[in-house]
Amino acid sequence: MIKLYNRTLSFFNTIEGKIAFYPTLLALGGFILSFSMMLLEENGVSKMILETFPRLMLQDGDTALTVMSTCVGGIISMMVFSFSMVMLLLSQASSNFSPRLLPGLISDKIHQLILGTYLATIIYFIFTLFSIEPDDEKYTLPGMSILIGILLTIICLGAFIYFIHNISQRIQINNILDDIYSKSKKRLEEVICLEDESSDRLKSTFPDSKNWYSYSTRRSGYFQNISISNVISFCKDEDIQIYITIPKGFFVLSHVPFIYTSREISEEKLKRLLANFNFSRGELVEDNYILAFKQITEIAVKAMSPGINDPGTAINAIDYLTELFTIRMRKKDNGVIVKDEAVYAKIAVVSFEELLYYSMASLRTYTKHDPIIVQKLLWMLGYLLNQNAEQNEYIEIINEEIKALKEDAKHAFGNERDFKAIMNLPIQN
């Protein structure tokens, strides 16, 4: 039951990021509501309300049809406009910032819920219209259903106003950066908390997997997530150890070794093991904090391109990178999975050195011509030198990046004054 629950939860987390998930659920809710109201109308609920609050009921079928038809047409127009605004947001974010931002923007629950509210109301009106005839009198009209439809229309109007406000906020780069940072910080802190205190001591006990049995996946895609508890249970049941060769967030090719096991397993057991891995064609920061470093780095690089030329955005992006690297320095470069003082598996991880190099290599290449940005990068690296590091090697890695950045600046700057300003920055070692 626990394994089934974990797999169901993983599946739900995957489909929840699809733009059609919540609209589909709400549309189904509108369909169910319309038929529920038909059953209540057959039991005379409108007649009882008419006798108690007659002013809430419409008087004839023509008026009811006119009101409901007008509401449907207006909501369809709002839905089309809202959908157009979402597409505009995605297009602008892709062209001005980074295409990697699209999965996170598409999975915004606010946009999905608003579009779903429109769709649910339209479906409710359509099926309610089937029960109205032009010559119906007030005692035979589904007055309660019409009243609920009018209330849903008012809710849609409020949702439309909130949508305009939300879309105007979401399109601002400061809010985009803050959203990426918040999600990645939460995920990174979760990973740090899950690290077992004894994992570093047991790291040396994990055997060499060179002569182990290798297995590949049957499909390609980004290695998005893994059910740790299910993998540990599998290792316990089969009395084996496994090594996962691809870090989370990387693209896994089919028929390329993905898993090494300490002893041979059958095809059926391999399928059961691979069922605990989630692959996708997209990536979300909530599942992989590495993506946040990629996205923020690409935003900074794109901001410094000649077509955009926005140093302010690049500086803001570097500030957020500084905070994320500070948190990352509290994490070990260790992918060993430990449970009850026993080592069951190991996952290849993106080390701090690789993560810092990938970010700094792009930033050095595309921003080294701007002395202000170079000073900001040196300030970031100098700040990291003074932070608590989980491993002493992190400090040496940062010093190497400082040397590389100054070397690039030496060849990029044609002005001696700019170069002296860089070299004279107070960076404590």
Ordered list of secondary-structure elements with their pairings:
Layout: H1 2-16, H2 21-42, H3 45-52, H4 61-96, H5 102-106, H6 109-129, H7 143-170, H8 173-194, H9 199-202, E1 213-216, E2 221-226, H10 228-238, E3 242-244, E4 251-252, E5 257-261, H11 267-274, E6 277-280, H12 290-303, H13 311-328, E7 336-339, E8 342-347, H14 352-367, H15 371-385, H16 393-412, H17 416-423
Would you give an account of this structure?
With 429 residues, this protein is an alpha+beta fold. The protein folds into 3 domains: 12-171, no CATH class; 179-194 and 285-331 and 350-423; 199-280, Pyrimidine nucleoside phosphorylase-like, C-terminal domain (Aldehyde Oxidoreductase, domain 3). It has 17 helices and 8 strands. It has a 5-stranded mixed beta sheet. Strands 4-2-6 form a 3-stranded antiparallel beta sheet, with helices on one face. Strand 7 (336-339) and strand 8 form a beta hairpin. Helix 4 (61-96) runs parallel beside helix 7 (143-170) and helix 6 packs antiparallel against helix 7. The chain is flat, with a radius of gyration of 29 Å. It starts with a helix and ends in a 6-residue tail after the last helix.
Q: Strand sequence of the main sheet, in spatial order?
A: 1-5-3-8-7
How would you spell out the order of helices and strands?
Answer: HHHHHHHHHEEHEEEHEHHEEHHHH
Overall geometry comes to flat
Helix content: 55-70%
Contiguous low-pLDDT stretches (5 residues minimum) are: none
**How much is the average pLDDT?**
79
Distance between the termini: 53 Å
Radius of gyration over C-alpha positions, nearest whole angstrom: 29 Å
Instruction: Report the portion of residues in β strands.
Output: 5-15%
Output the number of helix runs.
17
Total domain units: 3
Q: Biggest sheet, in brief?
A: 5 strands, mixed
